[in-house]
Amino acid sequence: MYTITSVLQILSAEHYVLADGGLAISELVYDSRKISNVEEGLFFAIKGSRDGHQFISDAYEKGIRSFVISDVDFSTSPYPDANFIWVGDALKAIQALAAFHRMQFTIPVIGITGSNGKTIVKEWLHQLLTSEHNLYQSPKSYNSQLGVALSVWNLRADHTLAIIEAGISRPGEMEALRKMIDPSIGILTNIGTAHMEGFASKSDKLDEKWKLFKNTPQILFPSSYVPDTENIYNGFTWGTKESDDFQILNISTEHTETKITARYQQENLDFVIPFQDKASIENVITCIVVMIQLGYDFTIIQERIKGLKPLEMRLQLKRGKNNCSIIDDTYSNDLASLQIALDFLNQQNQHTQKSLILSGFVDAQSTDKIMDKLIHLLNNQLLKRVVLIDRSLFGIITAINSEVLCYESTAELIADLSRINFNNETILIKGARKFHLEEVSQLLVEKSHDTVMEINLKAIESNLMRYRSLLQKDVKLMAMVKAFSYGSGSFEVANVLQFNKLDYLTVAFVDEGVELRKAGVTLPIMVLSPHEGTFGDILSYHLEPEIYSKRILNAFLQFLADRQIKDYPIHIKLDTGMHRLGFMKNELDDALTTLQKSPQVKVVSVFSHLVASADTAQKEFTAHQIQEFKRLAGALESVLEYPVLKHICNTTGIVNWPDAQMDMVRLGIGLYGIDLSDNGLHLEPVSAVKTTISQIKQLNAAETVGYDRKGVLKRDSHIATVKIGYADGYDRRLGNGIGKMMIAGQIVPTIGNVCMDMCMLDITDIIANEGDEVIVFPDLIQTAKDIGTIPYELLVGISSRVKRVYFYE
Ligand SMILES: *Cc1c(COP(=O)(O)O)cnc(C)c1O
């Protein structure tokens, strides 16, 4: 139990103001939008992509009374009843507090690092060890400098074993994580090329990761990833070498199973696992050696390994029946992951009504203290309805402010499901794996056409952060969500952007803006191509038009004058070379004279569009555009006599022309994970179109495939038919081997002409089965090049009948 005074001592801070030194502290808060326990919250003003100091007042308004800050001086404090502790760096302070907390425990703490597989190994160990242990695992991907601090903070006295993940991307980052985790057992999963950015070589990366194990007595790792350098990398190794402590003798795969034969202490052991892919096999072996280290009997290890379940651990957003949205998170349940899921629910504004279906927690987590926290968490959410499954939760019923329904089991809920009137709302389904709430989710979700476009909302968020980090000080950010957010879906994406406090959204047409408003988006929205017939909607939905010509200016002014409206926000578009929409320089004077005597409008921004910001051969032209824009925008500002936001950069402009970021930038394609600047930005892929194999045929050489007999076979072949055609947006030019798809990691060409709803693939060189998943565009940028177009066209061309499935991981 900590108080603000004990925190003060732990941080050895010298400068502080305490209004109430006895205030209890149980929750560490770094984001004023994510607070579950206001009374016992301690806010850290961390300087990340945003400066946390900006959100002190927001946190204060929500009820937080304790703050760790670094640079604001409140000598005349506007917050007389709050506690303030000044430190050099709030991130270091939260880490110091976590490290102190860690020292209070003597239980085994497993620290896990590596390039891939960390989360899976962590989850599997949870499945494997949960019958003996009250196991704590760091939630989802809380593995960063801040994430680890928050994870470690959640360690409690009743845990008997902890698994904490450490992720680094740059040299020098591990030491801080080591101090917080201080593992007694260390696991290295592997070393890959992922996240290579900050490192000169693979061995540099290994050295950095190894720092996690500085004081760790037991270190487990696969020898194949670690060079044989005597005395540097010591520990328990597994691999195919005779010198390995756990030596793999044979791996054989058949159907859906893999048999692993290994030698350990002169004994041969067999393990059968329900997976075949290399990554899973590697991860399972890591789990086996951990269990050996923890002293488990081989028969128990064998039995439990056999029953491992693959993880569908992505929180998914799906379209439900009766115009509902379903957030499906049915593989784990504890307070931390519930909080993440509730944050996500909160950020989805497409429906005002929200419901939660919640299972019991896993064993030993239903203490009174946890139940109190749960009540607090739920009552903070404005939920319309809470559906509880399992007796362990029944104690909280009377304390919940929303309508509550309760069931003893999932089966009981299913039997009653048709009587609950889920309608026009967002439903979060959150439950531990053993409750099988996926069965409930299946019943509530609208049946899908088999071809889907998966959109990773978390990746959009990361890409946003990436570009934010490239912005100069105080530059505002406008996101382009035109054309259904480049094909990714409007309100789902807009909600994420709004949650991340963007400054502006931009759509192409008024209809798109209206749809966003109806879904609850409140950010300012600019409309690129307004026309007279839509002025009514512009007003009713508070949209802000781009004014690009004398004609549209006069029409809009007249429209506003007729309604006696003043100061309506507009954006003036200048044409500096694109020659699409916008005032030419010789038209500007005239427009300014009009604006000067038109109180109906207020010019919020003036902007222009770069023609070739990605093309280095056009540098001179771009420089000229920027210069011309600055001159014209300056003229406009001096005539209007008030400040106006100036902006010209699109995605590649932000990167290639940083000095032209001015007051705001307009981020488009980069947000959706496509980097056309050749700058190695390491964006995260956002969307993936996936389909499945409907049928496989064995055909002889000289037969043909598809319309017009274009697919001529030169050898005996295996041909797979997949459910995507040109009506779905799979361009007909991709037929006859131009298009490539991916099945189980292997690339296969199309054969024959693309049909309207289907096309065929030549899978002769690989092993595949009917029903297998197919990735339609393994390399979007290359595919676009192959048919002489750009990724933008392929993305927005995916037709609306391809269902968008959202997830956030
Ligand atoms: C689409 C668009 C952008 C964004 O362009 P990207 O290349 O996708 O970043 C910026 N400004 C205007 C006016 C646009 O139409």
Automatic annotation (TrEMBL):
UniProt-listed Pfam families: Ala_racemase_C, Ala_racemase_N, Mur_ligase_M
Broad class of enzyme this protein falls into: isomerase
Gene3D superfamilies (UniProt xref): Alanine racemase, Lyase, Ornithine Decarboxylase, Chain A, domain 1, Mur ligase, C-terminal domain, Mur-like, catalytic domain, MurE/MurF, N-terminal domain
Start and end residues of each Alanine racemase C-terminal domain: 686-807
Sorted UniProt keywords: ATP-binding, Isomerase, Ligase, Nucleotide-binding, Pyridoxal phosphate
MF (Gene Ontology): ligase activity
This protein's record includes keyword Ligase: yes
Catalytic residues of the enzyme: 482 (proton acceptor), 707 (proton acceptor)
Pathways involved: Amino-acid biosynthesis; D-alanine biosynthesis; D-alanine from L-alanine: step 1/1
Amino acids binding substrate: 580, 756
EC number(s) recorded for this UniProt protein: 5.1.1.1
Modification type N6-(pyridoxal phosphate)lysine: residues: 482
Segments passing through the bilayer: none
Reaction catalysed by this enzyme: L-alanine = D-alanine
Names of the cofactor(s): pyridoxal 5'-phosphate
NCBIfam families registered for this protein in UniProt: alr, PRK11930.1
Family: Belongs to the alanine racemase family.
Cited HAMAP family: Ala_racemase
Function: Catalyzes the interconversion of L-alanine and D-alanine. May also act on other amino acids.
Stated name of the protein: Alanine racemase
Species whose genome carries this gene: Sphingobacterium pedocola
